[in-house]
């Protein structure tokens, strides 16, 4: 009996640890995001270790940028550092804009960004990338979920024009006719809508804007930008801040990476894209949308063009892709080997599997093959 009770207590403790790890992973800005398995223990899984080739990697590699990919990077870093002794990879979660600034100042080995480099940023990178320039390597995909908190409503369907009019302050109550039409049989309250957006510059904001601009151009007349463009609404800092507000405020809606909704039990909007059925936000549905992406970059640059207006069955088009920004030529000699070794792992089958296991969407295999080729060509 004592042994049985001891085993039960141990199982309970392990279960609590797993739940705790999942919650910690949602805080993109935290310093110690851990998950069960290899990442939590400091030891890579057998599959992960098999795809980690340390080569001549050594010393410390600094990187910074997108908070949207921070959860994935944390897991990659733990696996990688456990396999490659004497190597330290330090990724600072800030923002896409700050990451690119740091890259173009030469203070990091690579940057993470939720949007591809703009022409002026590429031009600036030539000062750091001797004989070359900054390029975009797509590495992480995922859905941008629309989380909502409306008392008595467990399921909510919305389309692009309605979402646009909610966030531009034209639809003000939950029982608006436009929302009711999309949700027959659902009792919607007359509660005022509290729409939360990011208060700081955000790649997640920019990607939501790209979707709304493409899918609802008449309702959303703003150009996609990292700074929130529309009137009204309430600002909150970071995806974590937006998710916290949605969790706490009745009548609220906001946008953030799916992991925040999953960990905090926030209900998410099903998207009416014009397909036969509304589409749920998930890693699988985001992957279907990303699979239709085309490479828009030239040469070694692999920036993608996403189809935000897709009506493919089961494809969720409010997605983001984060890029690792590196020099095609002229990378720092002291960190080049580590950059190539680490990114080769993140782009490997095992590295991409980490994404699908943690709420992200892997980069489609055809595109990822090209990513690996470019990584190996970096100099």
From TrEMBL:
Signal peptide extent: 1-27
Domain PBP: start-end pairs: 57-349
Coiled-coil ranges per UniProt: none
Residues the entry annotates as binding phosphate: 66-68, 96, 114, 202-204
Listed GO MF terms: phosphate ion binding
Keyword Lipid metabolism: no
GO BP term, pick one: phosphate ion transmembrane transport
InterPro entries attached to this UniProt entry: ABC_phos-bd_PstS (IPR005673), PBP_domain (IPR024370), Phosphate-bind_PstS (IPR050962)
Annotated Gene3D superfamilies: Periplasmic binding protein-like II (3.40.190.10)
Keywords for the protein's UniProt record, in alphabetical order: Phosphate transport, Signal, Transport
Keyword Cell inner membrane set for record: no
Annotated Pfam families: PBP_like_2
A GO term from the CC aspect: ATP-binding cassette (ABC) transporter complex
Record-annotated membrane-spanning stretches: none
Family, per entry: Belongs to the PstS family.
Protein name as it appears in the record: Phosphate-binding protein
């Amino acid at each position: 009996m004592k042994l049985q009770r001891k085993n039960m207590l141990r199982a309970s403790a392990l279960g609590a640890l797993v739940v705790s790890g999942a919650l910690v992973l949602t805080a993109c800005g935290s310093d110690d995001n851990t998950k069960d398995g290899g990442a939590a223990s400091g030891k890579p899984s057998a599959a992960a270790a098999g795809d980690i080739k340390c080569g001549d990697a050594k010393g410390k590699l600094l990187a910074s940028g997108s908070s949207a990919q921070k959860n994935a990077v944390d897991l990659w870093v733990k696996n990688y550092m456990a396999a490659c002794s004497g190597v330290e990879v330090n990724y600072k979660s800030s923002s896409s804009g700050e990451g690119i600034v740091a890259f173009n100042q030469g203070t990091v080995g690579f940057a993470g960004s939720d949007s591809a480099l703009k022409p002026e940023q590429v031009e600036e990178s030539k000062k750091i990338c001797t004989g070359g320039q900054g390029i975009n390597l797509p590495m992480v995909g995922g859905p941008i979920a629309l989380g909502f908190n409306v008392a008595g409503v467990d399921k909510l369907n919305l389309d692009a024009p309605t979402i646009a009019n909610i966030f531009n302050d034209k639809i003000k109550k939950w029982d608006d006719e436009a929302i009711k039409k999309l949700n027959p049989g659902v009792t919607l309250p007359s509660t005022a809508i509290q729409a939360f957006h990011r208060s700081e510059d955000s790649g997640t904001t920019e990607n939501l804007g790209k979707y709304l601009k493409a899918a609802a151009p008449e309702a959303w007349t703003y150009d996609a930008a990292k700074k929130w463009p529309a009137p009204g609404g309430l600002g909150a800092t970071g995806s974590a801040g937006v998710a916290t507000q949605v969790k706490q405020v009745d009548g609220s809606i906001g946008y953030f990476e799916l992991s925040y909704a999953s960990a905090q039990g926030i209900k998410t909007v099903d998207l009416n894209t014009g397909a036969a059925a509304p589409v749920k936000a998930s890693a699988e549905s985001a992957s279907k949308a990303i699979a239709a992406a085309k490479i828009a970059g030239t040469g070694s640059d692999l920036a993608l063009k996403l189809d935000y207006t897709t009506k493919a069955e089961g494809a969720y088009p409010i997605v983001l892709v984060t890029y690792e920004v590196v020099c095609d030529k002229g990378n720092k000699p002291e960190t080049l080997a580590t950059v190539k070794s680490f990114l080769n792992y993140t782009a490997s089958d095992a590295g991409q599997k980490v994404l699908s296991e943690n709420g992200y969407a892997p980069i489609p295999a055809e595109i990822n093959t090209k990513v690996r080729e470019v990584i190996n060509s970096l100099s």
